[in-house]
Amino acid sequence: MNPISDLINDSRKIVIKIGSNVLSNDQGEVNREVLHNIVEQASDLIKQNKQIIMVSSGAGICGVGAINKWSRRGDMNYKQALCAIGQVELMMAYKEYFADYGIHVGQILLTREDFKDAHRTLNIRNALFTLVDEGVVPIINENDSVSVDEIKIGDNDTLSAHTANLWNADALIVLSDIDGVYDKDPKREKDAKLIEEVENIDKLLEEIDIGEKSSFGTGGIATKIEAARLVSEYGISMLLLNGKKKDIIKKALNHEETGTVFTGR
Ligand code: ADP
C-alpha cells in the first residue's frame, strides 16, 4: 500500500496544476523541457483511460520571454499586457506538445466572478465536461489581463481547487518546485523534513512553518495547503509533487519518488 500511487491509480478524473516556478528556469525563462515532460506524462495518463484538466501558470514568464524589454516594468498595465502576450506563447507550447500525442487543447480563462455566479459556473462546467468528453485537454489559467484585485482569484492553487470541485475530480495534483510540504521551508533550512501524508490540515498548520510568498508573488506553500482544504470539503484528495523532476508522476506511481498526499476530509 502506497497512498500516492493508490491515489493516482484510483483516480479517473485528475486536475494537474503547474506552478510558475516549475515552468521557469533560473534565468526566468520558460523551461520547455519541463513543460514537454509534463505534457508527456499527462498524455500517458490519458492513454491509461484517465481524464485530465490542466491549470497552468506561466503567462507572465512567457510574456517576458517574448517581449523582454518590459520585464522590469512593475506597473500593473504592463504586467497585464505581458500576461496577454505570454498566454498566447504558453498555449502555443501546450498545443504543440500535446499535438505530439494527437491530443487537442482548449483554453479557458477565469476570474473569481465566474465561480460566484451560478449561471457562469454552469457554463464553465458544461464547457469542461464537453471538452474532456471529446478527448480535448482544457488548459485553465486566471484571466490576468482583466483580473484587478476585486475580481482576482489571486493564485492558481486556489483556482485549481475550485476547478477540481466544479468538475467533481477524483484528485488534484499540484506540481511545484519542492518535493512536498515540509516542517519548515526546505530552501532555507537544510534539515527540513518532508511530510508524506496529511490527514488533518489544522493540525499540520499548527506544526509547520510555512515561510513567505514566492518570488513570482504567487501563493507559496500556504495556498497549496488551503487548496488541499478546499478540495477536501468535496472529498477530493490532493497530491503535491515536485514538477521540476523528470517523470515525477510516473515515478511517484512506481514508488521511486514521493511527495505529500492530503487524505483528510
Ligand atoms: P509555485 O510557483 O509552484 O506555485 P510557490 O513558490 O508559490 O510555488 O510555493 C512553493 C514554495 O513554498 C517552495 O519552493 C518553498 O520554498 C516554500 N515553502 C515555504 N515553507 C514551506 C514548507 N513548510 N514546505 C514546503 N515549501 C515551503
How would you sum up this structure, described in words?
The longest helix has 24 residues, at 76-99. Helix 3 crosses helix 5 and helix 4 (59-66) crosses helix 5 (76-99). This protein has 11 helices and 10 strands. With 265 residues, it is of the alpha/beta class. The structure holds adenosine-5'-diphosphate. Adenosine-5'-diphosphate binds next to helix 2, strand 6 and helix 10.
Q: End-to-end span in angstroms?
A: 20 Å
Structural class: alpha/beta
Return residue spans where pLDDT drops below 50 for at least 5 consecutive residues: none
- How much is the average pLDDT? 92
Q: How would you write the strand order of the largest sheet?
A: 3-4-2-1-5-9-10-8
Q: Tell me about the largest β-sheet.
A: 8 strands, mixed
Separate helix tally:
11
Please tell me how large the radius of gyration is.
Answer: 17 Å
The SSE order reads HEHHEHHEHHEHEEEEHHEHE
Strand content: 15-25%
Q: What is the count of β-strands?
A: 10
Shape: globular
Helix content: 40-55%
Which cofactor or ligand species appear? Answer: adenosine-5'-diphosphate
